[in-house]
């Protein structure tokens, strides 16, 4: 078993060393929402616009198959509306996340691709902004949130022969990132985000057939 492990490790290192790894940068639009429960009858939640930006590497594993790890800042959260006897109360919850997706990517010879994989997230900031009767109050709620998130990511995209590409993704948070504030607090917050972005890869990579 030890010899088998060493052979597998050596083969993996050799593959990485000889692979045509490409590095690049990306950025674009987020449409972020959150699944919050329990939800009251007078509450509604919707997607809020934000942005993402970061760096990536693209590693060929086999014919048409690639591994793409990334480090990306992502603005997430949700917009909320609470009905009242007077004007509705509106709020925004803003999460600043450092996301690390590791995606398996299947790319056709024409440049179209599909991707799927896990994503780890580290909470950098969490703020709430509530508006009522023209008065807006902001507060830092990071101490009410957990520092780690785990999501699943699926996406599609296109990479041109100029190494310039576009992609669209959906990330679905698996973990409740709300930290209980006491025995009677059963609030759960799970993230979900649509991303539409552009990216650019440096290096020649594999030529298209």
What distance separates the N and C termini?
A: 39 Å
User: Helix amount, in percent?
Assistant: under 10%
Give the domain tally: 1
Question: What is the third-level CATH name, the topology?
Answer: Porin
How do the strands of the widest beta sheet line up side by side? Answer: 1-3-4-5-6-8-9-10
Q: Tell me the radius of gyration.
A: 21 Å
Spatial shape: elongated
Explain this structure to me?
The protein has one helix at residues 2-18; strands at residues 22-37, 43-46, 48-62, 65-82, 89-107, 112-132, 135-140, 148-159, 164-173, 188-202. It is mainly beta and 209 residues long. It has one domain: Beta Barrel (Porin), CATH 2.40.160.20. An eight-stranded antiparallel β-barrel has the order 1-3-4-5-6-8-9-10. The longest helix is centred in the N-terminal third of the chain and has 17 residues, at 2-18. The mean pLDDT is 88.
Characteristic terms for this protein:
8% helix, 209 residues, mainly beta, elongated
Give a concise summary.
By secondary structure, this protein is mainly beta. The chain has a single domain (22-202), classed as Beta Barrel (Porin), CATH 2.40.160. The chain contains one helix and ten strands, in the order H-E-E-E-E-E-E-E-E-E-E.
Secondary-structure blueprint:
Layout: H1 2-18, E1 22-37, E2 43-46, E3 48-62, E4 65-82, E5 89-107, E6 112-132, E7 135-140, E8 148-159, E9 164-173, E10 188-202
